[in-house]
Structure formats: structure tokens, C-alpha cells
Design brief:
Number of strands of chain A: 0
Mean pLDDT of chain B: 88
Number of strands of chain B: 0
CATH architecture of the largest domain in chain A: Up-down Bundle
Largest interface: A-B, 79 and 68 residues
Number of helices of chain A: 7
Number of domains of chain B: 1
Oligomer: heterodimer
Strand content of chain B: under 5%
CATH architecture of chain B: Orthogonal Bundle
Distance between the termini of chain A: 70 Å
Largest sheet of chain A: none
Structural class of chain A: mainly alpha
CATH superfamily of the largest domain in chain A: NADH-ubiquinone/plastoquinone oxidoreductase chain 6, subunit NuoJ
Helix content of chain B: over 70%
CATH topology of the largest domain in chain A: Four Helix Bundle (Hemerythrin (Met), subunit A)
Structural class of chain B: mainly alpha
Chain lengths: ~180, ~100
């Protein structure tokens, strides 16, 4: 029981607790803040696993981008002080039962499975290696998914602009 | 560092996935459902990094999948929020029960 083990358990309790509060609290703004804490905890877990680059990307994109976007949309569409209506009791009860069963089943499978032992390699993630492999066109390169994701981002950006664009009433009459 | 076995990390990610599913089932507000989806995608990220670290430490494939998932999650969140704002403009509500014209 050394420090790394204790840090892991504290982090996982923090992540799970914040996520549980994020899906059960009835004030929507608090829910967004708990989501923020859960994402920061996940970034800390990535730091703990030794992938600093992914942790930094997680903080920049999730915490700096998505949560801010969600909070903006909460302010645009909701009265954030109000409580949301309670979920129907039978629905929450039965979904909790079903998901507990699913969790027990899947964790049982994971627990019984004999994972193969890793090779002798050391796990170290260098950013230069990630960049080289991301753009290499050889056998294990990831340049094709990289390009596909670029097209996807462009398409979703244009799509967002088109969807959220306000049509003026005069133009609407012309159609 | 390696005293935690992979099953413990998989416990965390599985529990996070089912917490997100619970939120998706019980919430009727579109923004909170979007948050539940973000939690689910996060649990998948933890899974990919853990498998990469514990089973194939010489490779980087799990890292790449995590990067692509984060990118797609960002695109998806932006898209969903554009749709939500547009829906709010026409229906003055973002409850999924109020937007059911396409149902029948």
C-alpha cells in the first residue's frame, strides 16, 4: 500500500462520486459543475497512468471547450436556478436495477478473464512519437483517420453554423 | 506503479459507463442527456488508455483512439448544442417529451 495506490483509489472515488452527482442532482448548473469535476478527475487519472499528453488534451478540450459550451447553452436556454422536475420513480428504479445488473454481469466477465501479461516493453509516451506515427503513411501510420477526422470537423463546423443560423422572416416568405 | 491491476481500472471505467447510462435513462432534459453521453465517452477513453498501458505497452494505438474519440466528442457536443438551441428557438423547451413531432 504505497502512495500511488492510495492516489489511485482517491482519484477513482472522486471521479465516480462526481459523475454520480452529475447525473442525479436536480439543479442543472450544479450538474454541469459536477461534470467538470469528473472530467478533471479523469485527466488526473491519465496523469497517474503516465500519459501526460492525453491528460493535457483532455483538460484543454473537455474542460476548456465542451463544459464551457454546455454552460453557455444552459444560460441560453434554462433558468438555471430552478430545479428540474423529479424523474418518474418507477423509471429511475427500473433503470437503476437494470444497470446494476448490467454492471455486475460485465464486471464479472472482466474479473474472470485472464489478461495476457504485457511484453518486456516500457510504457512511455513521447509526444514526438505520437506526432510521427500520426502523420506517417507507412504500415502503422494514422494519416488516413487523421484526414477523415479533419473532414469531419470541417463538416460539423459548417453544419453547426447552418443549423444555428437564424433565418430572417423576409427570406422565409420567399421560400 | 504497477501494483494496481488492470481490473481495478476497468472497474472504474465500467462503473462510469453505467452511471452515464443511468443519466441517459432517467434525465429528460437534452443538455443533461448530452452530459451523460460525455461521461460515457470518458469511460471509453479510460478503457483505451488502460488497455494500451497494461497489455500493449510497446505500442501507441490506444493513445490514437483516445485522441480521435476526444475530437469526435468535441464535434458531437458542438453539433448537439446547435440543435438544442435551434429546438429551443422553435419550441421554447429542451425537454425531449416536448419535441415529438417526428415520433409518428
Amino acid at each position: 500500500m504505497n502512495a500511488s495506490v492510495i492516489i489511485f483509489y482517491i482519484l477513482s472515488a472522486f471521479i465516480l462520486g462526481a459523475a454520480l452527482l452529475a447525473v442525479t442532482t436536480r439543479k442543472i448548473f450544479r450538474s454541469a459543475i459536477f461534470l467538470l469535476f469528473s472530467l478533471i478527475g479523469t485527466a488526473a487519472l491519465f496523469f497517474w497512468m503516465g500519459v501526460e499528453f492525453i491528460a493535457a488534451v483532455q483538460i484543454i478540450i473537455y474542460v476548456g471547450g465542451i463544459v464551457v459550451l454546455i454552460i453557455f447553452s444552459i444560460f441560453l436556454t434554462q433558468k438555471s436556478g430552478e430545479e428540474m422536475p423529479k424523474p418518474i420513480r418507477s423509471r429511475s428504479l427500473f433503470s437503476a436495477l437494470a444497470l446494476l445488473f448490467g454492471f455486475a454481469f460485465i464486471y464479472h466477465l472482466i474479473y474472470k478473464y485472464q489478461f495476457s501479461q504485457p511484453g518486456p516493453h516500457l510504457f512511455e509516451v513521447k509526444v514526438s512519437d505520437i506526432g510521427t506515427q500520426m502523420l506517417s503513411t507507412t504500415e502503422h501510420g494514422f494519416v488516413l483517420p487523421f484526414e477523415v477526422v479533419s473532414i469531419l470537423l470541417l463538416a460539423s463546423m459548417i453544419g453547426c453554423i447552418v443549423i444555428a443560423m437564424k433565418i430572417k422572416p423576409a427570406e422565409e416568405n420567399e421560400r | 506503479m504497477n501494483e494496481i491491476s488492470i481490473t481495478h481500472i476497468l472497474f472504474v471505467s465500467t462503473a462510469l459507463f453505467f452511471i452515464g447510462m443511468y443519466g441517459l435513462f432517467t434525465r429528460r432534459n437534452m443538455i443533461t442527456m448530452l452530459m451523460a453521453i460525455e461521461i460515457i465517452l470518458n469511460s471509453v477513453n479510460i478503457n483505451f488508455v488502460a488497455f494500451n498501458k497494461y497489455l500493449y505497452p510497446g505500442k501507441l494505438d490506444g493513445i490514437f483512439f483516445t485522441i480521435f474519440i476526444i475530437t469526435i466528442a468535441a464535434a458531437e457536443a458542438a453539433m448537439a448544442i446547435a440543435i438544442i438551441i435551434n429546438l429551443y428557438r422553435s419550441h421554447h423547451s429542451i425537454d425531449v417529451e416536448d419535441a415529438e413531432e417526428l415520433k409518428y
